[in-house]
Amino acid sequence: MTYAVKECFLTLQGEGMQSGSRAVFLRFAGCNLWSGREEDRETAQCRFCDTDFVGTDGEGGGKFNSAEGLSAHVEALWGQGADGRLVVITGGEPMLQLDRALVEALHDRGFRIAVESNGTLAATPGIDWLCISPKAGTEVVQRSGDELKLVWPQEDIDPAALERWDFRHFLVQPMDCATRERSVDAAIRLVMDRPRWRLSLQAHKVVGLP
Predict the structure, then answer these.
(1) Do residues 126 and 107 make contact, with C-beta atoms less than 8 angstroms apart?
(2) What is the pLDDT of residues 16-41, one digit of tens each?
(3) Where does substrate bind (predicted)?
(4) How do strand 129-132 and strand 144-152 relate by DSSP bridges?
(5) Across the chain, what does the average pLDDT equal?
(6) In what order do the strands lie in the sheet containing 166-174?
(7) Which of 40, 50, 57, 108 is catalytic?
(8) Which domain holds residue 86?
């Protein structure tokens, strides 16, 4: 297995229930809902992505020929100390590359593994914290996990229907777009109308972290 990593660096987790936690952020290249090229955005299944996941030229990125090699890279970025080791794996779509071998290699180095996925592919076994962010018009097969993060607003998604899925936490995050003020207002209204949901903001952008 060769792992294509867009970027990998030490930071603070900026979203969700673990926001503010020290973490190594591992972004895999590639996605199954959009090529990442602007010319393909209008025909993509996910049209609002704000992430560059194309190639392996980001900070700490590259191609890794083994799970051992990639897990060693993650450990080197964490630095000294075994307490609280957390790696946040995302993309693109991480389930295209995350396999049992990498999960085991990261666990062997003492890391707790958090993953952020669009849910269209079944989750790799052994993940410690699973966040699913559904996209309108896609077939979500992974309907259980730790947190469901709904980027809002999206047409053709019913928050009431999502509440029947098996998650411990239901988060709504304003869409980062030209009409962000309206997105924030819409997210607040959703929480006020359906109190099972909790507002989640991208704290890393507020404080200027990548």
Answers:
(1) yes
(2) 999 999 999 999 999 988 877 778 77
(3) 12-14, 27, 90, 210
(4) parallel
(5) 93
(6) 62-64, 3-12, 22-28, 86-90, 112-117, 129-132, 144-152, 166-174, 197-199
(7) 50
(8) 3-207
147 flagged as catalytic? no
State the pLDDT at residue 3: 98
Cα-based distances in Å from 186 to 84, 138, 153:
35, 22, 7
Q: Among 8, 15, 28, 31, which one carries the catalytic annotation? A: 31
On the question of pLDDT at 178 being above 60, the answer is: no
For this structure, is 116 an active site residue? yes
170 is catalytic: no
Taking residues 51-61, report their average pLDDT: 91
Answer yes or no: 169 catalytic. no
Query: Could you give the number of structural domains in the chain?
Result: 1
Answer yes or no: 64 catalytic.
Answer: no
Q: Which parts are annotated binding residues?
A: 12-14, 27, 31, 46, 48-51, 90, 92, 133-135, 173-176, 210
CATH number at 24 reads 3.20.20.70
Does residue 75 have an active-site annotation? no
For the segment 106-162, what is each residue's pLDDT rounded down to a tens digit? 999 999 999 999 999 999 999 999 999 999 999 999 999 999 999 999 989 999 999
The token duo for 179 is 């009409």
Whole-structure pTM value: 0.92
**Catalytic entry in 11, 51, 56, 138:** 51
Active site residue 8: no
